[in-house]
Fold each of these.
Amino acid sequence: MKSKEKKNQLNIELKEEMSSGVYSNLVVVNYSPSEFVFDFISVMPGLPKAKVNSRVILSPQHAKRLLRVLGENIQTFESKNGNIKDLEGAKVPMNFGGPKGQA
């Protein structure tokens, strides 16, 4: 390995308690001029309540890089495994059992 490559190498540690990950089937995104906030949630069918399992906060620049790398990885996945079906018609309940708004 060249010394320049070694200098640019990043050693990333994955703690054991994080290694199994967190399942999410819903992501709520909020943003301000300085940050994007991603709340990863697991919604269970038939339950009126859900909790945020993980929150990730990114700068706008990093959020855009995430969009790009996610798109590249989806493209690679689909080239190997076929198109991912989009569930456009599937509706996610957004009230989570709370009070319903009235007009």
Amino acid sequence: MSITIIIVLITCTVSLAAFQRKDAMYKLKFIPTVIQSNKEWHRFFTYALVHADIPHLCINMFVLYSFGEVVDHFYSDYFGSKSLLYFILLYVGGTVTSVIPAYKKNKTHLWYSAVGASGATSAVVFTCILLNPMASMGFIFIPFHMPAIVFGLLYLGYSFYMAKKNSDNIGHDAHFFGALFGIMFTILLDRHIAVEFIKQIRLHFNT
């Protein structure tokens, strides 16, 4: 059983249980004011285990499974015995890093809370884009595809714009910073991955 499937199963189990117990949901949520006042640092991690509703959970886990399996296989081939550790660090690092800006911005906002594995999932998705920038990608339920690098740039631009606009309840900043973490973390593991990324793009446009 792959690490991706294990993460999906754990997340689904915890999320479904939390739907039935509001006290458990509250204890796991990312709430900056509570973190700051009560030093509940575990919330930087546990918020990714719970979700707002079933569709939120299903979309995140579908995306994680789809891209996580690809990244997992690449890590296994490329990093060997260290691949499991690196994948866990990628996922957990994306979870934590993606909400640091939200923590700084909402330390005094009693109304702010966040749930969901979107930041960690973005880290995995953008690692996949880094590894195969010319793969065909598209949005769920929309039958239109484009090169992964184009999709990635559009997604980053959209997430950055919507995070600045701050007009809905979606964690666009988590998507943005989770994506950046995925890219930087994988490059730091081996800079040759960045070199290969550039080579793939050049090869595509030179043919």
Amino acid sequence: MKNLTILTLDEPGVTDFAAARNKLLTTVKTPWVFFLDKDETITPALEREIDKAIHGRSPKDAYLVRRLDTFLGRELHHGETGAVTLLRLARAGWGRWERPVHEVWTPLGPEVQIGLLKNPLLHAPHPTITSFLDKINHYSTLEAKYRHKLGRKSSLFHIAIFPFAKFLQNYFLRLGFLDGTPGFIMAVMMGFHSYLTWTKLYLLWHKK
């Protein structure tokens, strides 16, 4: 696409995703940039919408994009992943990434205009349960270290209650049950992610 650079982050071994994305930003020579993960796909419809957005008469400073997850062969329209919108398209000097994991792209200026693209970004992050568990293990370690650095504490209450609450939120409140068995498994895995994060945070505070 004209006037646009698509940046893809090579994830294996990354321990600070914000720093890695900010480093990629320094290589951009075009007015616009789009961040695409390796397990994501830009559809032709989304490509046309991006092109129209950045070459329109009055483009926004940045754009959110919806993400549609596929897990175990089924599209997930509910639960934690069902309503995800991510800021992935922006002017090259618009902002910088923050947080080492579950990173967010934040503006440098005080006043910005953010739009929303209608066509989704396709996301197929977990081809197997084993790869899913590997990613959960890696991300929960990074998140626990980040929370430890911020001074957050963990306790038996966090370890015992929060993961179960996470499951209930995703499966019932966010209607994950409507996505069938894949929706149930996803809710369980997100609860397990919470369990690992709070447990690892506890161990960081109590290691000898």
